[in-house]
Amino acid sequence: MKIALITPHGVKCGIFTYSRDLSEALAEKGVDVYIIRLPRFGRKTPAILQKMIDQIPVSDVDLIHVQEEYGLYSGLEGGFYGGLKRLGKPLVSTMHAVGNLPIDRVIADASDKVIVHNQFCKKRFRFKSEIIPHGCKPAETVPREEAMKRLGIDARVPLVGYCGFIGAAKGLENLIEAVSKIPDSALLIGGGWHTGPGTQYMASLNQMTQTLLPHRCKWLGFVPEDELATAYSAMSIVVYPSVYSTESGALLMALSHGKAVIANRIAPFREKEKLGALTTFRGVNSLVKKIRLLLRNEKIRASLEEGARKYVEANSWEKIAERHVNLYKTVLGEV
């Protein structure tokens, strides 16, 4: 089986990481994956998108798989998907965002199959779709004392952490406020952010930590993949306070490191809570209580860590790739 995978590639981007891990897992299943590189940043034009379509080795592939997120195609999905359909190949789309009805309709009409990551996305998409969860990869860790030493942090300090993209929808101001109410703890924040409007938000967070958490917050900036084990291993618990999300690769990375995770009580995270992978909170006071409980109660923390490992095992990239292969076979009429 041979597929063309249209995706951002070779950039600091969650969809790139997702597509890389998926393509590697598909290759292990014997699928030949041709990467068709989508420029991640900058406004797209019809000419740029057509050039990308022209790069697809039509005679060499069985189907085309598009990674879709609003903004990636600068709102030009209508013309782009029309161009793909004219190639005459079966078309699969994975929705990393849902809820824009006009764009969703274009994609649903053009695609033979649409993949979403969870029940929340399936309901919000409104059109026919198949759920295939975001894959996970068990990650190696290092001893906590060693990780703390590498980061220059006293190993006796209970460390609450966040690692992921930093933007206004991530709710980090709530995490900062919560940790400020737990005097014996400290906060470790890792992650990059977009320049432009996002810079002002980042500056406000920095000022907030200086005011509420003097000498109790360490900013790591963007954390390269080979340093993630150190960051996560240092954290006693990890918090994802996002106010909106369809899925979170960063949260899944924390689970992949076997961490006890507290996440905001939004629908996609509630689905994982029901599976025992994490616990949720609602509001700053609730978050404070959850952090205190997990820092003090090793048994409950260990139970969440075990739940994280079980979730990762159940949704390994190997298993997710197998589900993709089965879907491809259905599209190609091989089953």
From TrEMBL:
Short name of any one Pfam family annotated for the protein: Glycos_transf_1
One MF annotation (Gene Ontology) recorded for this entry: glycosyltransferase activity
Glycosyl transferase family domain residues: 144-310
Alphabetical list of Gene3D superfamilies matching this protein: Glycogen Phosphorylase B
InterPro entries named in the record: Glyco_trans_1
PANTHER family: BLL5144 PROTEIN (PTHR12526:SF572), GLYCOSYLTRANSFERASE (PTHR12526)
UniProt protein name: Glycosyl transferase family 1 domain-containing protein
Organism: marine sediment metagenome
